Amino acid sequence: MKKLLMIGACSIALHISQAQTKTNTQDAKMNAFVSSLMQKMTVEEKIGQLNLVTPGGTVTGSVVSKDVDSKIRNGQVGSLFGITGPDKIRKAQEIAVNNSRLHIPLIFGLDVIHGHRTIFPIPLGLSCSWNMDMIEKSAEIAASEATADGLSWVYSPMVDIARDPRWGRVSEGSGEDTYLGCQVAKAMVKGYQGSSYSDPTKVMACVKHFALYGAAEAGRDYNTTDMSRIKMYEYYLPPYKAAVDAGVGSVMSSFNEVDGVPATANKWLMTDLLRKQWGFKGFVVTDYTAINEMIDHGLGDLQRVSAEALKAGIDMDMVGEGFLTTLQKSLKEGKVTVAQINAACKRVLEAKYKLGLFDDPYRYCNEQRFNNAILTDANRAAAREFAAKSMVLLKNNNNVLPLQKGKTIALVGPLADNKRNMLGTWSVSGDPEKSITVLQGLKNVAGSDANIIYARGCNISDDTAFAKKVNAFGKEIEIDTRSPQQMIDEAVVAASKADVIVAVLGEAADMTGESSSMSDIGLQKSQKALLDELKRTGKPIVIVLLNGRPMTLTWEDQNADAILDAWFSGTEAGNAIADVLFGNYNPSGKLTMSFPRNVGQIPIYYNHKNTGRPYSGVGAGKFRSNYLDVSNDPLYPFGFGLSYTSFTYSNVTVSSPTIKQGQKITASVTVTNSGKFDGTETVQLYIRDLVGTVTRPVKELKGYQQITLKAGESRKVDFTISVDDLKFYNTDLKRVAEPGDFKVFIGTNSRDVKEADFKLVQ
Ligand code: BGC
User: 593 with 653, same domain?
Assistant: First the structure.
């Protein structure tokens, strides 16, 4: 046996060393190729490789690139974003390959964020599935469609931890938790890149926005961030690192400052941390005109900020052309060195080499794949499944859901029959016309079994000035020619004839996403007025919420019978919503961001500190850490989500009351499906370190397991806890586990848990 093991060990070692030799040989070949090419390049041409332009498409800043064709011809462009389609991409590539002096191909990138042509739920929604295989698959399908459309580089995953739902970009991330954020980051990179992005059905991913972009003060986009190093290391940086560890090919710098220096000129961030400590080998691109914006940050003129960015470790300048227009001057004046330009150019050329563009610059221009691999039935079926799995049931009184077939449904609300808003923000290549509305979905799923009376009921908002801002990318908020009262009256008439009201309410797609911060995250007045009147009918109300952020739903929680949070769930939204409403899929999503009771509670997150004056919720709370006018706890906590069935948890047991360095213990619980439906439950494990040299949160997610149980079935769920799970960053920024008492909690969400104790001993 021992011999066998040794042979096994030897053969593994042999495989590893063979793999290493293969990598070394590939690297040596790449180095030889890139350095021989660079010897032929002028400094101008090297700087040209650092220039990323867009002829249009997704424009999120005030600048759009000009004279793109002639710049490509002159070797002044390294990469391009904003165009799709093998025909267009081939044409642009031909200019670079046939007409530029050194024939260097371009990389074609785009914001492929939650699907490419087949749109999946917004990332915040996907994260609520807690299903990493599914999330990986969503990125894999996106990569397959993107490459069929001529692209080889996507600006995703966005892994910014965020604790403030006023910030519209929470929709693009995975919520407030670091542990879960790391899992999602890994899954997305794996899905996009596969084992190698040299595969022409895979893309190079770009993790963003490095770093701390999600901590914008007051939830206002592009605003200042400022935090302690411990907070950075412990909560905000790990998801970016997880993407780097997963082999992400590129990193995007963020707009915000980090420790007083904008990320885009922050040498500590881009070089010391990212490259030296984390060993990142790919290239760093700025965010849209982030170099130029450092002028407004107050760092100097364009020449200075461009030089600072290069010196900090930025390799590619998105759209702003600060590198293109100033680096030569800076070189002449000794403000940057050739070595710095060479290092950046080399990284960009290496990415092109790894993508296989030097072998075949047209490898992503495959018309056959363009015709066969996009918006396929299989991709749409996946979108429908992923959407159902991302939805979170927030309330379900008296089992009003699932809806019974054969009943009359009053389907109301401005989002009930609305293709324009189904896809959500950052679905730049999605076609809203291809999306399924809730009205269509209900008809598709229930067929003749449901009698549906539709009435729009209200506008998303009646505020024309607000609508104008939201409608920057198209008419998402349409103000009806009927008066608000007339629409409400129509909805009330529909309700009076129905057994149940399904009100599809929430936000327009671009009320979240970039530059979409909100100071009030409740439903708009127009929608509240509709709900008020519907309530008076006495009919049961099911709210289906389409939203990109946690919202304040205190009134809705008290007055609706059921609330299903469907997020913006993409191309197949309507079908998936109907699947859930009719019980063809039993909801299993769990929130990855806390839902506050009101805006005053923000920032609100489950893994907060205890403080020196914690408030338990009992008594007046004078001189304890709490509010006079609202409780401390959120309306719906992190990890929360109901099912049509119910799950009961036994007490938690631990395999040993102590754990030592190098050892593991097991914490276990038995979960029973005590309801009437089969269902999937995400069993969550949290740990609290009771005493430490730095203060530790009241609980932190350290594991979860998703189990599917038949009605009446029970299963024991075991979690392995290792000393590594107990580690944290101390004041020297070292990750340590300190001996002492710990609590382990297991439960159905971060609030409703059972607990046991154990000790870490030396
Ligand atoms: C956004 C990025 C995006 C880029 C390119 C920026 O405004 O912050 O997330 O990738 O534009 O579209």
Answer: no
121 close to 180: Cβ distance less than 8 angstroms? no
Query: What is the token pair recorded at 205?
Result: 């991913």
**For residue 210, which phi and psi values (nearest 5 degrees)?**
-80, 110
Amino acid at 191: G
Does the CB atom of residue 111 touch ligand 1 within 6 A? yes
Q: Reading across the β-sheet that carries 408-412, which strands appear in turn?
A: 392-396, 562-565, 541-546, 500-506, 408-412, 451-455
Of 222, 223, 252, 288, the one to substitute when testing ligand 1's pocket (max ligand atoms within 8 A of C-beta) is 288
596 and 655 share one domain: no
Identify the residue whose C-alpha is closest to ligand 1 atom 2. 287
Task: Let me know if residue 686 belongs to a domain.
Answer: yes
Of 111, 160, 287, 565, catalytic = 287
From the CB of 208, is ligand 1 less than 6 Å away? yes
Place of tokens 């009256």: 489
Which of 696, 415, 447 shows the shortest CA–CA distance to 567? 415
Which CA distances in Å does 223 have to 220, 256, 530? 6, 6, 35
Query: What 8-state DSSP symbol labels residue 437?
Result: P
Mind listing the pLDDT tens digit for each residue in 528-565? 999 999 999 999 999 999 999 999 999 999 999 999 99
Provide the phi-psi class of 126: left if phi over 0, else alpha when psi is between -120 and 50, else beta.
Answer: alpha
**Angle in degrees, CA 82, 83, 84, rounded to 5:** 130
Yes or no: say if 492 and 538 are a contact pair by the CB < 8 Å rule.
no
Asked whether 287 lines ligand 1 (CB < 6 A), one says yes
The pLDDT tens digits for 237-295 are: 999 999 999 999 999 999 999 999 999 999 999 999 999 999 999 999 999 999 999 99
Identify the bridge partners of residue 261 per DSSP, sorted by sequence position.
258
| Pair 570, 659 in one domain | no
Q: Tell me whether residue 531 is in a domain.
A: yes
287 is catalytic: yes
Domain match, 434 and 539 both = yes
Tally of domains within the chain: 3
Nearest to 104 by CA among 162, 166, 33: 33
Q: Say yes or no: 556 and 458 in one domain.
A: yes
Letter for the amino acid at 87?
A: D
Q: Are residues 459 and 522 part of one domain?
A: yes
pLDDT for 16 equals 62
Stated pTM of the model: 0.96
Q: Is residue 464 part of a domain?
A: yes
User: Which amino acid belongs to residue 402?
Assistant: P
Domain extent, residue 24, equals 1-38
Of all protein residues, whose CA lies closest to atom 4 belonging to ligand 1?
288
Rg value, the chain, Cα:
27
